[in-house]
Amino acid sequence: MNVLNRRPLFVLTQTVVLVVVMMAAASQATGQARTGETVIQKATEQFEDSPLTITSLSQGLYVFSGDGGNVTAIVDDGSTLLIDSGLASRISELSDAIFRTTMRPVTRLVNTHWHFDHTGGNTYFGSSGVTIIAQENVKKELSSAEDVPFIGLRDGHYPPQALPGLTYQGSLTLHQGSRRLTLENYGAAHTDGDTVIYISPANVAVVGDIFSNHFYPIIDLSSGGSIDGMIHSLDQILAQTDEQTKIVPGHGPLTTRADLQDYRDMLVQVRHRIKDLIAAGKTMDEVVAAVPTKDFDARWASGYVTPEAFTKMVFSSMAGTKASS
Ligand SMILES: [Zn+2]
User: Fold this and answer.
1) How far apart are CA 101 and CA 103, in angstroms?
2) Which residues pair with residue 184 across a beta bridge?
3) What is the CA(174)–ligand 1 centre distance, in A?
4) Cα of 116 to ligand 1 centre, how many Å?
5) What is the CA(243)–ligand 1 centre distance, in A?
6) C-alpha 172 – ligand 1 centre gap (Å)
7) Ligand 1 mean position, distance from CA 217 (Å)
8) Average pLDDT in the 282-300 region?
9) 40 compared with 221, residue with greater pLDDT
């Protein structure tokens, strides 16, 4: 399917089924987002068009970026353990790059959460016998269709082979060669099934979409996400890391604890402002019009989550509404 054939898909309604979009072949880079596009349409175009890059964190520890969410690979003598599996439409490219880089078969796959840009390769890997590991709610979310308010994501109903075969609730420890992986769920934050992975002794933290470097987050109201949960999880991550920790965000380049602290402080301030506006009786549209993110937009509005979409998600998270407009 060429770029001309792909265009009409992006004028469908917000309930467009993502898998249809993801079946479109990767196209030439187009850059500009069109007016009226949803967050997910913008993100999908970016994921389709970005080159795959490989970053080496240390011996046998790599991050593959560009194909949806960041994919981390941890290699031991005989196998590769992956964290997240990218975008379905680019799985051949990703799996070839992983094998060329690690020269080991993937035997285990950890999902940081259920979203399509982190689980797109689950069917591919699950079909070849890879053990998929995730917080228990990921299995529930992947099994059922979900509409995520304000961003235009409708996803779910993954086939059985794409579902986690090993789940945990609060914490799980894995070993990959000489490395220890500590999987932690701090309660619902970005979704209700987020996993943060600490890799020691490498001093690496893989935080999924609790932090994308560097733009406003999606708060998935369809699966328990909340601004309070985001801030709570960030406080836990800040307590478990130090200045030397290499932080792998859900999207974007490797980052530091200092960046994570700035991001957490931004979320706290936006929450505070929106809380005051809600207390003053403002409606969601009035809160959006007040632009509570204004002085943060220069740093945080460069991604596919607009200040308006972010404001609506924070507002709804606090006001308890789940309106999908
Ligand atoms: Zn996500």
Assistant:
1) 6
2) 171, 196
3) 23
4) 8
5) 25
6) 21
7) 8
8) 97
9) 221
Q: Tell me how far apart the terminal alpha carbons of the chain are, to the nearest angstrom.
A: 31
Tell me what pLDDT residue 197 has.
98
Residue 295, burial from CB neighbour count under 10 angstroms (0-12, 13-18, 19+):
exposed
**CA 70–ligand 1 middle distance (angstroms):** 11
| Tokens representing residue 53 in the block | 């890059």
Q: Compute the average pLDDT of residues 104-116.
A: 97
Q: How close is the Cα of 47 to the center of ligand 1, in Å?
A: 13
Q: What mean pLDDT do residues 7-18 have?
A: 31
CB neighbour list of residue 68: distance below 8 Å, 6 or more residues apart: 47, 84, 86, 87, 90, 116, 117, 118, 120
* Higher pLDDT pick, 95 / 11: 95
Contact present, 49 and 186 (Cβ < 8 Å): no
Contacts of 195 (CB under 8 A, 6+ apart): 110, 111, 112, 113, 134, 135, 183, 184, 185, 208
Q: What predicted TM-score, i.e. pTM, was given to this entire model?
A: 0.86
Report how far ligand 1's centroid is from the alpha carbon of 153 (Å). 10
pLDDT of residue 22: 31
Structure-block tokens of residue 250: 């859900």
115 C-alpha to center of ligand 1: Å? 5
pLDDT above 60 (res 15): no
Q: Which residues contact 259 (CB under 8 A, 6 or more apart)?
A: 213, 214, 247
- What's the 280 CA to ligand 1 centre distance in angstroms? 32
How many Å lie between the centroid of ligand 1 and the Cα of residue 290?
A: 27
Nearest to residue 287, comparing CAs of 267, 309, 268, 265?
Answer: 309
* Ligand 1 centroid from CA 78, angstroms: 30
Instruction: For residue 286, report the distance from its CA to the centre of ligand 1, in Å.
Output: 27
Question: Separation of 250 CA from ligand 1 center, angstroms?
Answer: 7
pLDDT band at 1 (very low <50, low <70, confident <90, very high): very low
pLDDT tens, position by position, 117-126: 999 999 999 9
Q: From the CA of 92, how far away is ligand 1's center (Å)? A: 22
Q: Which two tokens stand for residue 274?
A: 């929106």
